[in-house]
């Protein structure tokens, strides 16, 4: 697969959705950035891949919002790493994001399945 094919097959994460995915992975327990990225990739059967350039700004934004907290720890590989964990307000935010996501995905599904979309084709 050449670079163009990889780009064409790549799914861009909707703005705001990355925050929800990060919060969801942290619901399972504290994790460092690389672990968060792996959890998103594995949990989506390799469909979603979060680039470092998107992940860390999102983590910093979530931390500024008070939805995650971080601390330095020694990783399983014996290296110093910043671990992130979900705060109580982060759990509340995750519930709100999931509700909004359910509304949006239901609306998109309804539009894609509508009779009018078939007639316009």
* Overall spatial form: elongated
By oligomeric state, this entry counts as: single chain
Instruction: Spell out the helices and strands N to C.
Output: HHEHHEEHH
Q: Summarize the amount of helix as a percent range.
A: 55-70%
Gyration radius from CA atoms, angstroms? 17 Å
Q: Give the CA-CA distance, first to last residue.
A: 31 Å
Quote the CATH topology.
Answer: Arc Repressor Mutant, subunit A
Structural class: alpha+beta
State the CATH superfamily name: Winged helix-like DNA-binding domain superfamily/Winged helix DNA-binding domain
Total strands: the figure is: 3
Number of domains: 1
* Count of helical stretches: 6
- SS strand fraction: 5-15%
pLDDT < 50 runs, ≥5 residues: none
Please supply descriptive tags for the structure shown above.
121 residues; alpha+beta; Arc Repressor Mutant, subunit A; three-stranded antiparallel sheet
Account of the protein in words:
- The protein has 121 residues and is α+β, with helices and mostly antiparallel strands.
- The protein has one domain: Winged helix-like DNA-binding domain superfamily/Winged helix DNA-binding domain (Arc Repressor Mutant, subunit A).
- It is built from 6 helices and 3 strands; from the N terminus they run ααβααββαα.
- It has helices at 3-9, 17-27, 33-43, 52-64, 88-113, 115-119, and strands spanning 31-32, 68-74, 80-86.
- Strands 1-3-2 form a 3-stranded antiparallel sheet.
- The radius of gyration is 17 Å and the shape is elongated.
- The protein starts with a helix and ends with a helix.
């Amino acid at each position: 697969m050449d670079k163009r094919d990889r780009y064409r097959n790549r799914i861009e994460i909707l703005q705001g959705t990355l925050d929800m995915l990060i919060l969801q992975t942290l619901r399972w327990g504290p994790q460092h950035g690389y672990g968060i990225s792996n959890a998103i990739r594995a949990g989506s059967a390799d469909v979603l891949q979060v680039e470092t350039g998107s992940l860390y700004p999102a983590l910093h934004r979530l931390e500024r919002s008070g939805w995650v907290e971080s601390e330095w720890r020694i990783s399983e590989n014996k290296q110093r790493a910043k671990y992130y964990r979900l705060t109580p307000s982060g759990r509340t935010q995750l519930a709100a994001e999931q509700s909004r996501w359910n509304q949006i995905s239901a609306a998109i599904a309804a539009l894609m399945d509508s009779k009018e979309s078939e007639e316009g084709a």
